[in-house]
User: What shape does this take?
Amino acid sequence: METRHPIPFQLIELQDVCFTIQKDGEDVNLVNQVSLKVPKGHFMAIVGPSGCGKTTLLKTIAGLNPESAGSLIWDGRNLSEDEDFEPTEIGYVPQFSIAYDPLTVDESVEAATRLRVKSRNSSELDRRIDRVLDETGLTGIADRKVKVLSGGQKRRLGLAMELVSDPRLLLCDEVTSGLDPRSEREIVRLLHDLSRKGGRIVMSVTHSLAHLELYDSVLVLHEGCVAFHGPPDQLTHYFSVNDTEEVYPRLASQGGERWLVSWRKHNDSYREMMMKKRDKLIESGSLQVPEEPVPVSRNDRDETHKSTKTTPKENGEPKTTTPLVSRALPLPGFLGQFSTLLSRRWRIFFRDRTQVLLQLAILVIFPIIITLFSDKAGDNIKRYSDFKSDNMLIEYKEQAEVMADQAKVGAAVSGIIMFQVVLLSLMGSNNSAREIAGERQVYEKEKFGGLRPSAYLASKIVFLACLVVTQSLYMAFFVESFGGEFRGNFMDHAIFLLLINASMTAICLAISALMRTAEQASLLSIYLVGFQLPLSGSVLALPAHIDAFTRPFISAYWAWSGSVEALQNQVYDAVKSVIDTSLTAQQICLTVLGIHIAVALIAALAGVCRPQWD
Ligand SMILES: Nc1ncnc2c1ncn2[C@@H]1O[C@H](COP(=O)(O)OP(=O)(O)OP(=O)(O)O)[C@@H](O)[C@H]1O
Ligand SMILES: [Mg+2]
Assistant: This one.
């Protein structure tokens, strides 16, 4: 009978994995034929000089960079052919912070948990949060705001937010960089401890060659190639140097591919050393690795998947193994993620005092500005008398008076409507231009962790809809009360004000979802608003051939035109007498604005579904 090796099988294996990009028409391998095998319960450092491809390798393992060649085997599953990791079985702590400054540590971990793990009840949720805070040493500062945390505390928080789903593979990118030596050691120790229980693999990218003794293995990368992967105490011996600090200068002495060729000759013997060390750790009880499928408590999961797979025979491991029961925790549903995001968005909004004050100032000041210009819009327009005078002079005089009144009132009414439309367009762009682009990296990270793009977008739509309704109706009713009554159907007018704000908010949300940076999104949105007034034709008519092309896209025209159509006949005629631009029936205006909103939301959905990592 075959003896069972303490290591049932490799949990993750890379076979000649490459990540290739095109540069000047040529293929460049940023990750070059990387092969490695990592067993359960392993703490591995990925080191190498800046730009050698550490982050790229980590992203390739995580599935964020699709491998160009080679295979990635996880838990007996070929990820290059089958489906990717379950979002909850992998944790990825990126180089940037993934927490929102205005929230507290506790709130950040709670939101991360609610977004990633389906909890049966609040006590189960609380237990999970408390456990993670405890594991990462954050319990004492749970109510502290993220913005006041130290660098080390922020890194712990980043880890905590990943640990909420109990990932079996934890990938960390430079979580110790920029920390003082003590904090660095504490974090490395924490990562070490996280790999000791439950068979979790922790791979940590670092520049630093300090504290290597805490790792089970060190992978040295040079120009995308593996130059070494073995026990840390063998590093200096392999590179024939006296001190680890001399490893990088030594690496520079030859190219990555040559290091790879040398490494392939030694790979097996160093691997054997790693395995022996590991066996000793297991025997001494310092490393706890579940050999059999992990027993999963009923509380923790909904379903288990058991299957028997064949893995290559190696190191005396059985040829056919029963993989670990997939411990991937179930994700929360759409509604759970949506409500978590929405309540987090409101919390962040109300905690950002500048944002609240700015919104209030815009809300209050813009309608006041409009009322200052509205006195002429309420003036009477002289009517033609019913009796025709025989006196031509009297007739001309009357006509001139009527026309003068029409010009004065028509220009004022049209101007007031357009003024409201333009200011609401500005509010719309201010509402949403940065909404997605400003938090894109955090969102990408959350999407990687299982957040549904549809839940994310829905939370943005509901949040923004509240702003749009408040701004538009406040504007409409304030001007109605203090700037003189709308001389026509006020409700129609209010609906068009609501629609222009909704339309610009939706369009700028789409821009925010499609642009790479918040600056690009803001700039484009401001230009878009800036062009609304001249291209609407409300001030000066455009040449017909330009007008035909631009009009369909200018939301301000449709809101202005729809609103003018709501005016009573006499005022409507007055407006018509001062403009050269043709007006369009209300139904068509409504339809076009509806199309603008729908197309913008579809574009925003496409934008949030598209991966956009830096
Ligand atoms: N998508 C990409 N397109 C083009 N070049 C890329 C891409 N991703 C990474 N690179 C380049 O590949 C190289 C490796 O980048 P990577 O970020 O992996 O390095 P690193 O080892 O993590 O560096 P550091 O230690 O400074 O974080 C760099 O020269 C980088 O500019
Ligand atoms: Mg990096």
In short: The CA atoms of residues 512 and 521 lie 5 Å apart. Residues 1-8, 293-326 have pLDDT under 50 and may be disordered. The longest strand covers residues 10-23.
